[in-house]
């Protein structure tokens, strides 16, 4: 997993430079989390918090948030961002590896949005066991899971972002989405995430202390028209949000 630090720092530079603020889609993502959690909650642990827009949005709305991110550049932006808004709740930013991190608190909701699947099955199981330990007894984990059918059928798709470009591929043997970015000098970095069907996820959850209780399909891109559909059927969606509870 040596690619992780380099990829996310470079992706941040290519996509945002000095970064951006909270946008409508960050508010919508929090609305989705609130609806899918389906119960009042106060505390959130976000894993892989990136440049912090979701965590800042949640603290701005009044939640007490702990945001964990590995890449120092992204944590620096997150801390800068939290100074730009009035936060009704608390935001604690932690620069650490969530496979090694020790947390003394437990949380109502643990979120891992757009990033699950780093490493192999044993890495996922190890993280899921840790999530179970970080959850309150009546809490839930909400995790975005990439679907194998979407990414396998869209291998080879390319797109441009200013001077940068991006190409998707798929490792059929390993069931992994491959996301390669190219900068203006054609230097490339690749993200590799394991894809799981809901049945695969249920098998993965065995012995982790968590069980799957619900899923919510995500969106899909039509690459012919370049339209994004926010609520796609599961069989067409690029990901789904899994709701996990202790059990």
Automatic annotation (TrEMBL):
Entries under InterPro entries matching the protein: Methyltransf_25, SAM-dependent_MTases_sf
Q: Which segments cross the bilayer?
A: none
Query: What Pfam families does UniProt report for this protein, alphabetically?
Result: Methyltransf_25
Q: Which domain of life is it from?
A: Bacteria
Methyltransferase domain location, by residue?
44-139
Alphabetized CDD domains for the sequence: AdoMet_MTases
Q: Which residues form a coiled coil?
A: none
Protein name according to UniProt: Cyclopropane fatty-acyl-phospholipid synthase-like methyltransferase
Q: What organism does the record attribute this protein to?
A: Virgibacillus natechei
Q: What is the lineage of its organism?
A: Bacteria, Bacillati, Bacillota, Bacilli, Bacillales
């Amino acid at each position: 997993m040596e690619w992780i630090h380099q990829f996310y720092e470079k992706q941040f530079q290519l996509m945002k430079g000095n970064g951006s603020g909270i946008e409508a889609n960050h508010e919508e993502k929090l609305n989705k989390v609130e609806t899918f959690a389906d119960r009042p909650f106060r505390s959130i642990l976000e894993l892989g918090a990136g440049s912090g827009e979701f965590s800042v949005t949640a603290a701005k709305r009044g939640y007490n948030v702990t945001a964990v991110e590995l890449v120092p550049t992204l944590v620096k932006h997150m801390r800068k961002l939290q100074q730009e808004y009035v936060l009704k709740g608390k935001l604690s930013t932690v620069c650490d590896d969530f496979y090694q991190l020790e947390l003394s608190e437990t949380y109502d909701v643990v979120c891992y949005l757009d990033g699950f699947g780093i490493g192999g099955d044993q890495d996922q199981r190890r993280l899921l066991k840790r999530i179970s330990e970080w959850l309150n007894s009546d809490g839930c984990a909400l995790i975005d899971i990439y679907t194998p059918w979407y990414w396998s059928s869209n291998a080879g798709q390319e797109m441009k972002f200013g001077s940068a470009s991006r190409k998707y591929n798929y490792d059929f043997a390993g069931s992994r989405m491959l996301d390669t970015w190219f900068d203006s000098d054609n230097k490339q970095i690749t993200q590799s995430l394991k894809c799981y069907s809901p049945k695969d996820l249920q098998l993965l959850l065995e012995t982790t202390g968590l069980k799957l209780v619900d899923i919510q399909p995500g969106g899909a891109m039509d690459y012919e028209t370049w339209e994004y559909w926010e609520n796609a059927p599961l069989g067409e969606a690029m990901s789904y949000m899994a709701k996990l509870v202790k059990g």
